[in-house]
Specification:
There is one protein chain. This protein has helices at 29-38, 53-61, 76-87, 106-114, 133-136, 171-174, 188-194, 201-206, 210-215, and strands at 3-9, 23-24, 27-28, 45-50, 65-68, 93-96, 123-129, 143-146, 152-156, 178-187, 220-224. It is α/β, with parallel strands linked by helices. It has a domain at 3-127 and 180-197 and 219-243: Spore Coat Polysaccharide Biosynthesis Protein SpsA, Chain A, CATH 3.90.550.10. The strands form two sheets. Strands 1, 4, 5, 6, 7, 8, 9, 10 and 11 form a nine-stranded mixed β-sheet that branches. A two-stranded antiparallel sheet has the order 2-3. Strand 2 (23-24) and strand 3 (27-28) form a beta hairpin. The longest helix has 12 residues, at 76-87.
């Protein structure tokens, strides 16, 4: 199976404009993501999909593959689909690698890719066990419910499931909770289809794109990672990277 990694990267970020080009200990964020992705054993190519010439020129400067995409995409999924069409490579599946996680582990990419060893896999993603109350009750940390086949049942910014009859500080002792790690895998034909779906009511309610897929009957295969992922959404988030440097 031929699997391609695509890194969506846009310059215009409301909370952190230009963040793909910020310097992190001598390398830009987008270069660090690209180099980490290239270490994955499961993908044949890595491509940055951007809407900005500054990012494109920088990727070319360190020898990376890059493709220009529209400024009008609402999600990384849409940008991935345009990129895979323009890059003109015959991929069976695509891994959407977040452009704001400069220390993503290659093993995480390989774990998502491993889901496609099953012919029935349509979509795939990662989760990690929640270990602190701060994460458990943080609405900025999406939670995931899984079924017995390791498929996602639901994603929510609320803490799910609700543990009835117990104080909240006891919930982690009563149940294994998972948070979503925002890396996606798509079978290529499914990627083409889901980009044509209209926004769903659950997606609009929670502001979580993946609910559109579930609401339309698609199955999302899930693997569990032990690696911590750190996404950079604001300048203050750069402080989180000290554990990696």
């Amino acid at each position: 199976m031929n699997i391609v990694g695509i890194i969506p990267a846009r310059f215009a970020s409301t909370r952190f404009p230009g963040k793909p080009l910020i310097d992190i200990a001598g390398k830009t964020m987008i270069q660090r993501v690209y180099e980490q992705a290239k270490k994955a054993n499961s993908i044949s190519e890595v491509v940055v999909a951007t809407d900005d010439e500054r990012i494109a020129q920088h990727v070319q400067s360190f020898g990376g593959n890059v493709v220009m995409t529209s400024e009008n995409h609402q999600s990384g999924t849409d940008r991935c689909f345009e990129a895979i069409e323009k890059f003109e490579i015959n991929a069976d599946a695509v891994i959407n690698i977040q452009g704001d996680e400069p220390f993503i582990q290659p093993e995480q990419i390989d774990l998502v890719a491993s889901c496609f060893s099953l012919k029935e896999t349509e979509l795939a993603t990662l989760v990690k066990k929640i270990s602190t109350n701060e994460e458990l009750f943080n609405p900025n940390t999406p939670k995931v419910l899984l079924n017995s086949n390791k498929e996602a049942i639901y994603f929510s910014r609320q803490t799910i499931p609700h543990i009835r009859g117990k104080e909240q500080n006891e919930w982690l002792k009563q149940h294994t909770f998972y948070k979503h790690i925002g890396i996606y895998g798509y079978r290529t034909d499914v990627l083409a289809t889901i980009t044509q779906l209209k926004q769903s009511s659950l997606e609009l309610a929670e502001a979580l794109e993946q609910l559109r897929w579930l609401e339309n009957g698609y199955k999302i295969k899930v693997e569990i990672t032990d690696f911590e992922s750190v996404a950079i959404d604001t300048p203050d988030d750069l402080q989180k990277l000290t554990i990696f440097l």
